[in-house]
Amino acid sequence: MKRFIIGLGEVLWDILPQGKQLGGAPTNFAYHVGQFGFNSKVVSAIGNDLLGAEVKDFMSLRDIDNYLAISNYPTGTVEVELDSLGIPSYQIKEEVAWDYIPFDAQIKAIAQNTQAVCFGTLAQRASTSHKTIHEFLKAMPKDQNTLKIFDINLRQSFYTKEVIEASLKVCNTLKINDEELIVVDRLFELKGKNAEHICRSLMDKFEISTLILTCGAHGSHVFIEQKHSFKETPKVNVIDTVGAGDSFTASFCASILRGMSMREAHQRAVDVSAFVCSNAGAMPKLLPEHLI
């Protein structure tokens, strides 16, 4: 049986000016990993409502495999506004289905057959899903090739130092952007001289093997052991940046699992995220084929 690559956490509808689009970092991640030919799956929860049924329909149309527990709470939604540069801001609804993902027998079985998982802080804002995410991580295979990717994704006030610290302790790969790095530096009093020093301090403090730092238009960095890769951000006609970071994480993950070097995987991630920015929405089909 092929092992899974899992997007674990929130699944929701982004309510954009042009209409609603299926979103949530785990969904975007799983979709893009699937485009690379891997056995990807979304693990989350939806409401027993029309929006939940539409989630299932959308995932079926996009061929996104999923395990979505049915909750008594409504399917999640987010009001998204885009500024003049296409940068999104979010108003995330609370007390929704993905706050209550159960760690049931089916989710445990999925975890036991997972080779890589991507999770963040947002789905850990409620105790039920927080517990499920950490139980999932514990149930995963213990071999050294298993990837536990913490894409920190700090949103509004839906995070705490305790949640971040617990997640840093159990991940082996951290994805963070430059604004989030400032927050983490302050929370943990790392007092770094510069971004690289802060990243290296985080890696040492929490025994993280790979750290990805994205800096928007100012490029991106990957740190592995004593190695460092920096790539410029390509200049493209940006439509919007929704899901760009998720596509970056997914592409890097898929490329590493294919056996690419750190620098090769980094370049593929940069190219894919630039392509996503040049298209509307988080889940365009990756064309041309050299991106895959």
Note down, in words, how this protein is organized.
The protein is an alpha/beta fold and 292 residues long. It has one domain: UDP-N-acetylmuramoyl-L-alanine:D-glutamate ligase, CATH 3.40.1190. It contains 9 helices and 13 strands. A 9-stranded mixed β-sheet has the order 5-4-1-8-9-10-11-12-13, with helices on both faces. The protein is globular, with a radius of gyration of 18 Å. The mean pLDDT is 93.
Short précis:
With 292 residues, the chain is an alpha/beta fold. It is built from nine helices and 13 strands.
CATH topology: UDP-N-acetylmuramoyl-L-alanine:D-glutamate ligase
Q: Helix tally?
A: 9
Could you say how many structural domains there are in total? 1
Question: What string, H for helix and E for strand, traces the elements in order?
Answer: EEEHEHEEEHEHEHEHHEEEHH
CATH architecture field: 3-Layer(aba) Sandwich
Q: Tell me the Rg in angstroms.
A: 18 Å
Query: By CATH's scheme, which homologous superfamily applies?
Result: Ribokinase
What oligomeric arrangement do these chains adopt? single chain
Q: How much helicity do the residues have?
A: 25-40%
Uncertain segments are: none
Q: Under the CATH scheme, which class?
A: Alpha Beta
Tell me how many strands there are: 13
N-to-C CA distance:
23 Å
Give the integer mean of the pLDDT values.
93
Strand content: 15-25%
